[in-house]
Write a structure and sequence with these properties.
The two termini are 26 Å apart. 26% of the residues lie in helices and 27% in strands. The radius of gyration is 17 Å and the shape is elongated. The chain has a domain of 43 residues. Strands 1-2-3 form a three-stranded antiparallel β-sheet. A hairpin with a 6-residue loop joins strand 2 and strand 3.
């Protein structure tokens, strides 16, 4: 008897990242990010790398637990 396992979860996102320069002369530029689901076209923006990583981590955990 052959038991077939369901394929693991799959998610795809298109990542965009860009620098935003501050108007203040001594301030460094910051990076902002967005992810888009290519299947739905739904997008989500992130003000910094930590927020982006937190979102991806949450998506992976949700997928892992069901």
């Amino acid at each position: 008897m052959i038991i077939r396992m369901a394929p693991p979860g799959y998610q795809a996102f298109m990542l965009r990242c860009w620098r935003v320069r501050s108007q203040e002369p001594l301030c460094l530029a910051t990076w902002q990010f967005s992810l888009e689901d290519p299947h739905t076209g739904k997008g989500r923006g992130f003000a910094d790398l930590d927020a982006l990583i937190d979102f991806i981590r949450g998506e992976v955990i949700k997928d892992a637990i069901g």
